[in-house]
Structures are given as C-alpha cells and as structure tokens.
Write a structure and sequence with these properties.
The chain has 164 residues and is of the alpha+beta class. It has 2 domains: 6-84, no CATH class; 98-163, no CATH class. It is built from 4 helices and 13 strands. The protein binds zinc ion. The site of zinc ion (ZN) has 8 residues, from loops.
C-alpha cells in the first residue's frame, strides 16, 4: 500500500476511470485477507471484493479499494463503485501482469513488445500415405522473440510488475 497522504488523494481524485483501470498492484495473501475481514465488503463475488469504505470521490466517481484473487496471486486498485465488474478486473490484471517468455533465450516481456513477423498467403501441401492435399493459408503474422527471433514463445507467464 502506498502512503495515503494528501498528495495521494489529490492524484486519485484527478484520475480517469481508464487511468485507474491500469493501476493494479500485487499484494500478499495476508494483505488480501486482512482487507477482506476489516469491514463488511461493499461488493463481493468472482474472486473480488470492494472494501466497504469510500476512499474519496474524484472525476471517476466514488472510489473504493478493490482486491482480487487470480490464479494464486493477489491484486488491488482503487476503483469507482459503479464500475464493479470482476470479469473486467480479471482482464485488466492479465493485461498488466501476464506476458510472454521466449523458450530459447529466456526473454520476458508484455505482448506489445513481441516482434510481429508477417508472412504472405502461401500454399501448403499435406502428404499422407494415399493422398496429397494442397491448402492455401491466408496471410497473417506470427509473434517472435524481439531478442533472438525465436517463435517458441510461452504466452502465459506472470510478470513481476511491482519491481519496476
Ligand atoms: Zn528469444
């Protein structure tokens, strides 16, 4: 948790809903349980809850702390009460904390940093014991490692964003 001084609340009040949606931080299981038990939650479900105490009101509306449990990890951010939606929170957390790992050189990073390689439409022939079929594959692109160019990318790896 950051120190919640006057400057913190002033910044919070000026943040848009979009800015708030990208402000997830990781926390420990202990912090998560502590916040869940401190007050009856204002909202609860889908692995998430909103602490039952309004932080402040800003341009995005009345803000409450949301905490979420996802795949054995714990996260929190301030969120407008009216935007309560655990499914949206889940995709926000994945966008912020789940990335890609190169199985060749170990490069680790978000999807936006992957090198996209495009290829033109091409013909591919599948040959079996007693058949041969030619298919036309549409043009498209593949994700490659920006460091070594390998296509062996694991796209489901947790990134540690709190260390930034
Ligand atoms: Zn690589």
């Amino acid at each position: 948790m950051p120190e919640r001084d006057l400057a913190y609340f002033e910044r919070l009040q000026s943040m848009s809903a979009a800015e708030l949606s990208g402000s997830w931080q990781e926390e420990s299981a202990e912090e998560f349980s502590e916040m869940r038990d401190v007050l009856p939650p204002a909202r609860m479900g889908g692995g998430a809850f909103m602490v039952g105490s309004c932080l402040t009101t800003g341009v995005a509306g009345s803000l409450y702390d949301v905490h979420m449990h996802l795949s054995g990890r714990y996260f929190w951010r301030p969120a407008p009460l009216r935007s309560w939606d655990p499914l949206v929170y889940r995709s926000e957390i994945r966008a912020q904390f789940v990335g890609n790992k190169c199985m060749e050189c170990g490069w680790l990073g978000p999807s936006k940093d992957l090198h996209r390689e495009s290829f033109p439409s091409r013909e591919v022939t599948h040959v079996g014991r007693d058949f041969s079929i030619t298919d036309t594959l549409p043009a498209g692109d593949v994700a490659a490692c920006p460091e070594c160019g390998s296509l062996a990318i694991d796209m489901n790896v947790w990134l540690d964003r709190n260390s930034e």
